[in-house]
Structure formats: structure tokens, C-alpha cells
Amino acid sequence: MNHDRQSQRTIEINTRLVTTGVVLTAAGAVVAWAGMAIAAAAVAAAGRRLIRDMDVPPTQQAAMKWRRAKEASRAGMQAWQSTSDAQG
What is the pLDDT of residue 5? Predict the structure, then answer.
């Protein structure tokens, strides 16, 4: 008989507290998302200003570096071939 009483116990949850917790969590999430959006907008604006104020646009910088890398690769390959030709 004592076993039957123990198995019939249920957990009593205060639904007002659970609801309040859910509402506060949702409100905190909304505030966090708003903060992240504001921070992202500030970083994006700073990036746009930085690019706008550059002397050489990033696309031209990338093209110049790509050209240099190709030339360096070609020079290295020619040096390797001339060394192997001289040894062989």
C-alpha cells in the first residue's frame, strides 16, 4: 500500500514561473538579436568607408598580387629547370 502512494506522486510545476521564464528568455533573445544587428551594421559601414578611402581598390590589389604570384611561380620553375638541365 505504501508503494502505491509513492508511484502516484506527480511533479507540481508553477506554470506562472515557467511562463515568466519563457517570456524573459524571448525578450532577451530579441534584445540580443537587435544588438548583433546594430553591431553588424556598424562593422559593415566601417568596412565600406575603409574600402572607399583606399588608394588602390581591393580588386586591383588582388589582380596585382595574382600577377606577382604567377611571375614568381614562373621564375621558380625556370630556375628549377635550368638547374636540372645543368646537372643532367
Answer: 58
